[in-house]
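This follows on from our talk about sequence and fold. Please put the record directly below this note.
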Amino acid sequence: MSHPATEPKRNKNEFRINVYGLGYTGTITAVCLALKNHSVRIYEKNQEMVRRFNEGKPSFAHIELKSIQSQIEQCHKNMAAFSLEEKITAADFHLACVGTPSNKIGDFDLEQIVAVSKNISSSLKIKQPNIPIVLFRSTMLPNSLRELVLPVMEKESGMQEGKDFFLAAFPEFLREGSGIQDTWSPLHFIVGPISKFPEEARSRIDSLFQNSQTLEILTPEECSMIKLGSNAFHSMQIAFANELSELCNNLGISGNRVLCALINENKLRYERNYLKPGPPFGGPCLPKDLVAIQSMATAHSTKIPLLESISISNQNRLNKIADLILKQNKTRIGFHGISFKPETGDTRGSAVLNIIELLHLKNQNLKIEFFDENCSLENLNQKIRTKVIPVSDPIELLRDDTSLLVIGSQRPQPDFLANLIIKENICLDLNYFADISKHLSEKHQNILFLCPPKI
């Protein structure tokens, strides 16, 4: 993917867009906008990620992007990645998609937010026909845009928000594995401007994404809280389903049947992907945002016992799984799939890797192997690399009766399941795939479930 030599002539609904950050959100956002014939420049501080993106090898979302590879190749002239050390060009839109990891006390680390605010400010002084619109997609606390980003940008640029540029919260609601679909059909299509948007600015944002939903104008604080609340609610549903299914199991009741009934209550409208018994929640968003809400509540002397109990419940689930595995007295543990979500290849905050770390902490003599066609050792941090051994063929996870198999986030193929049934290795199903859980419950004698499936 080479830099576009000259910018083609564009109509009034085709914009110059600067995207900041080549993580998952930035990559998906940039590609989707380039597919709409906008001119997209992506700025990233990590020069290796810039190089890989321009070679057609993005560090994030590569599996998802494979499905539209031919379309991406056709629109490559519309986008390119650049180092943040290069001069930032003028643009109609600036979309900040940088990360906000947790700091030591549980708040968001906003170092990258401050840095990108300064980066964007440097280009606002360039005279251009349209007032630039700066949209922050990054997850922040409700007061961060108004109290941190706005003062930095006005000071660095010497410009006035609402007159020389528009600044707004524009949170993303992208689910890994379906980010492209979610870009065009978002769960929430909301924007929170600092100053009241004129109709022209609102119309430009509508034209930018061209999806079927009506753009809802809220405050920046409301937008940030909807994003945090959404992830906290998803976290709560997972913990709730696991706790309820555990209670049902102890009472001799089918937890799956109870939860299926709750799913079918249209008035409640629980998400089917969350309200089911399974592994603890993980990933790059849910744990981080949950901790941020707890930290914010503490700072404001607000008691939130249910939300505070979610992390405890999640850790209890993690401990239960590790203890169940160790109780089998096996010396080899094989994990079929280690990413935090099936078929994504993303291991950030993976519940399976958290289980592996806990197993290693409790018994350092265990030999732990994994198979995941979308992950390799390079996907893992240095701490976990020394604790696991990758295998190239999942059959290697079924060596002998000293082995225990854990079906994680990689969907097992039929031939592997056939071998598992024949060899009768003890197997723990973490309930990622309902159809496979049902099949194994009917065919395999040595299967362990967190919650038995319906038969």
Observations:
- Residues 220-250 form the longest helix (31 residues).
- The chain has two domains: 16-218, 279-449.
- Residues 438 and 453 are 6 Å apart (CA to CA).
- The two ends are 50 Å apart (CA to CA).
